[in-house]
Amino acid sequence: MVEQKMKIVAAIPARGGSVGLPGKNIRPLNGIPLVGRTVRAARGSRFVSEVFVSSDSAEILTVGEKYGAKSVLRPTELSGPTASSESALIHLLQNEPSLVSEPPDILVFLQCTAPFTQAHHVDHVVEALLAKNATSAISVVDDHGFYWEVGPSGEGVGLNHDPSKQRVRRQDISARYRENGAVYAMRVPEFLEAGNRYCGKTILVPVDSTWIEIDTSQDWDMAEAFIRSEPFTGFLTETETQPLRAVVTAFAGVHTDNTVFVNRDGTESIVCNRYDEIGLDRLLGRGMMLLMLDREEDSLAVQRARKLAMDYKHHLFDKMETLSDWRTKKGLEWSEIAYIGADIADLDCMKACGLSIAPRNAPAEVKATATVVLESAGGAGVLNEVSELLIARGMIAN
């Protein structure tokens, strides 16, 4: 009942200028720009009704809109390196017409620099704020480190342990938490009065995330090493979940991992995944039309398509033309086709189809274009994962 009565919105301040890592807010991490990641997390929350991106950069606002946020242009005087996030949040609350006419009860503040934020982290923080009747709540992660400071005479002084005594086990140290810069939730009247995200009774909400925040190139390298693989946990709009009648796939990079084995006699061989056969059988059994679309005719691809009961087409220069012809002959609307791409040559087709999908290890530009970035890498069961996604979400036309 509380959830239904309260108006809860999310705000993502994202400046165009960054001293430590220029352009970081629109830089793709595993194919998805940081601001896009943050918008997806907010939109996936069951509490948040609207998501706003506040920025002085038209490029950032455009990316935010692509992922489903509403844009708010921030004044120049609130966009410098010394401007606080609070000033941007207050500007949003006091100038966005929909928030002025109907002020929200709770504001969820998210930062692009915390790229591992997911929808359930937002939910945990909001739930804790409501359950504990707090005024503000912040996401934190467990920190079991031994902390020191430099004493008056230059000696090391233990902060959460006594170095003069036998070293205690790490798990026996009193619980400590580190703010991970990901999610903040505030009751709006108290926030506006205090002008501070830590207003009134502030509670800590431990989340199953990491402490990594991206401010420098070293932070970025750490995030890329940490992310490795991630399942699709994003938000699909009603438009993106329209009933589908066909799945079109590239061959190399989707059915395979792009590895080619050259035998002594000069013939080539590849490795495919049998789980893909299971996935496509499930789609065929539900009446889905299947097409393998290649750049050039490949005897291995032709044999694989025949085994999988897929149509096979190719075009050296223009996949889009070939796909358009096939679509017309099959009587399909663009919105009824899901396209799985793994190459720059797939981008036009991905943009035209109702749902675009990329394997985890696809090039960054391909993943940035995709609606869905999969957990599976090319050749590692991509088509089986896609079939599970479409069936589980009821996205196959009757």
Describe the protein in words.
The two termini are 35 Å apart. It contains 14 helices and 19 strands. Strands 5-4-1-6-10-7-11 form a seven-stranded mixed β-sheet, sandwiched between helices. It has a six-stranded parallel β-sheet with strand order 16-15-12-17-18-19, with helices on both faces. α2 crosses α6 (119-131) and α9 runs parallel beside α14 (382-392). It has helices at 2-5, 34-44, 58-66, 85-95, 97-101, 119-131, 188-194, 217-227, 274-284, 299-307, 319-330, 347-352, 364-369, 382-392; strands at 8-13, 28-29, 32-33, 50-55, 70-73, 106-110, 136-142, 148-150, 156-158, 177-187, 202-206, 246-249, 261-262, 268-269, 289-294, 311-314, 337-340, 355-358, 372-373. It is globular and about 75 Å long. 32% of the residues lie in helices and 21% in strands. With 398 residues, it is α/β, with parallel strands linked by helices. It catalyses: an N-acylneuraminate + CTP = a CMP-N-acyl-beta-neuraminate + diphosphate. It comes from Roseibium algicola. Belongs to the CMP-NeuNAc synthase family. InterPro entries: CMP-NeuNAc_synthase (IPR050793), Cytidylyl_trans (IPR003329), HAD-like_sf (IPR036412), HAD_sf (IPR023214), Nucleotide-diphossugar_trans (IPR029044). Pathway: Amino-sugar metabolism; N-acetylneuraminate metabolism.
